[in-house]
């Protein structure tokens, strides 16, 4: 019951209605669906659907539309076989120090995700490397050469049991 109250308050404050949520839910599962098929699925007219999707995009609810690639197939084809989940703690945690490290991590192509976290380490990174020597080169560029990095703890994935980019917007 609390979830519904929070959902109602969220929708009320941000001017999202049930149709907006249904649109966002449908698009996060298949952004390639045609406007006509999407409108049909939601029982609204195609022009209304198009206007709403455009508004949701302009307001920043839809950040971008991408293709999610099959990591196992791509990794096998390209020889990328190493995913590392990396905890990074800095010596100095002032805003300027956090910003500098974050910019460095975000700019590195091998870093797929960069999260500031609390408590514990300052950052959690998801790093994709071809192999261990490649990971070593990445770690030297990001961690070893940075005097403000105090501690690094890497965990190497052996199996990806679940990966999703979707938010639970609808009941179920």
Q: Nutshell version of this structure?
A:
This protein has seven helices and four strands. It has helices spanning 2-14, 18-29, 35-42, 46-58, 71-78, 95-107, 132-144, and strands at 82-90, 111-116, 123-129, 149-156. A hairpin with a 6-residue loop joins strand 2 and strand 3.
Task: Please characterize this protein's 3D structure.
- This protein is α+β, with helices and mostly antiparallel strands and 172 residues long.
- It contains seven helices and four strands; from the N terminus they run H-H-H-H-H-E-H-E-E-H-E.
- The protein has two domains: 2-58, Winged helix-like DNA-binding domain superfamily/Winged helix DNA-binding domain (Arc Repressor Mutant, subunit A); 71-156, Lrp/AsnC effector binding domain/regulation of amino acid metabolism (RAM) domain (Alpha-Beta Plaits), CATH 3.30.70.
- 47% of the residues lie in helices and 17% in strands.
- The protein has a four-stranded antiparallel beta sheet with strand order 2-3-1-4, covered by helices on one side.
- Strand 2 and strand 3 (123-129) form a beta hairpin.
- Helix 3 crosses helix 4 (46-58).
- Residues 8-13 have low confidence and may be disordered.
**Average pLDDT over all residues:** 88
In which order are the strands of the major sheet placed? 2-3-1-4
Q: What is the name of the CATH class of the largest domain?
A: Alpha Beta
**Shape from CA axes?**
elongated
CATH superfamily (homologous) name of the largest domain: Lrp/AsnC effector binding domain/regulation of amino acid metabolism (RAM) domain
Assign the CATH topology of the largest domain: Alpha-Beta Plaits
Order of helices and strands: HHHHHEHEEHE
Strand content: 15-25%
Helical content band:
40-55%
Q: Roughly how many Å apart are the termini?
A: 14 Å
The secondary structure category is alpha+beta
- Count of the domains: 2
**Number of helices in the DSSP assignment:** 7
Low-pLDDT stretches: 8-13
CATH-defined architecture of the largest domain: 2-Layer Sandwich
**How many strands appear in the DSSP assignment?**
4
Cα-based radius of gyration, to the nearest Å: 20 Å
